[in-house]
Amino acid sequence: MLNRLTIVLLITMVSIISSLIVTFVIAEGFGNGMDAINVACAVIAPALIGPMVTWYIVGLLLKINQLEQEQRSLATFDALTGLLSRRAFLEQATHALHLAPAGQIIALAYLDIDNFKQLNEQYGHAGGDAVLKALGILLQHLIRKHDIAGRLGGEEFAIFLPAVSKDATYQILERIRCAIAQQVTVFEGQPIQYTVSIGLSLYPKSSSTQLEALITHADRALFDAKRQGKNCIALDSPTSHS
Fold it and tell me: Annotated catalytic, 155?
C-alpha cells in the first residue's frame, strides 16, 4: 500500500501536468501561445497549493481506512483471545459445513473453563482475562490449520473440526484438554492452573445436517462433562442415543 507522502507527491504531479495542459489549451484558444509566465503559473500554483490540501485530505482518508480495518478486525476476532468472535465463528463454521461432502465426519466441540467464577473471585477479573488470553493462544497452536476456533462468550469456546475421524477427534481434544490442565498462567506473580470440560458432537454429514444441530448436541455433551466431574470429554450425537 502506498504511504501518505507518495500519494501526495503523485497527486501533486498529476495536478501540475493537468494545470499545464489546461493552460496550454486556453492559451492556444486565445491565440497567445504558451510563454514563461504561463508555464510558471501553471506549475507553481498546484505545486504550492496541491501538497497542502492533499496532505490533509489523504491523511483523513487513510485514517478512515484504518478505522474501517480495525472495525472489521473487531467484528471478526475476539480482542482478548485473538480467536474468532461468536458471529465470525458461526459464519465460518456454517460455510465449512456447507463445503463438506456428504458422508464426511464432522465434529463440533464446546470448551468451558471449569470453576471460572471462583477463579475470577480469587484472582479478580484481570486474572480471569489473563487465563482467557492464555487459553486463546494455546488453542491457536493446538488446532489443525483447517479447524475453526472461536470464543462464543465468557469462558466458553468452540472448535469446528471438519474431515476428521472419531478417534482422531478424541486425540485432538484430549491433547488440548491435557495441555490446558498442564499450563500455568502467571498473573501478578501468582501461578494459575485451571481445567476445561469439553462437549463433543460428531457424526457424518448428510444433506439435512445443520450447524444448529451440532451446537445443540455439543451443548448437551458439555453439560454431561460437567456432571461427570469436569476436566473431561463427553459425547452427545444422534448415534449416541440410538
Answer: yes
Which pLDDT score is estimated for 2? 65
Q: Which of 155, 174, 188, 212 is catalytic?
A: 155
C-alpha span between 99 and 95 (Å, rounded) = 6
pTM: 0.71
Within 10 angstroms of residue 135's Cβ, the number of other Cβ atoms is 25
Task: Please give the grid coordinates belonging to residue 135.
Answer: 487459553
Instruction: Quote the DSSP letter at residue 84.
Output: B
Residues 152 and 86: beta-carbon distance below 8 Å = yes
Q: How far apart are CA 117 and CA 150, in angstroms?
A: 20
Cβ pair 106, 214 in contact under 8 A: yes
Q: How far is CA 239 from CA 9, 111, 201, 203, in A?
A: 66, 21, 10, 7
The pLDDT score that the predictor gives to residue 215 is 93
Q: What CA–CA distance (Å, rounded) separates 110 from 201?
A: 9
Residue bearing cell 501561445: 33
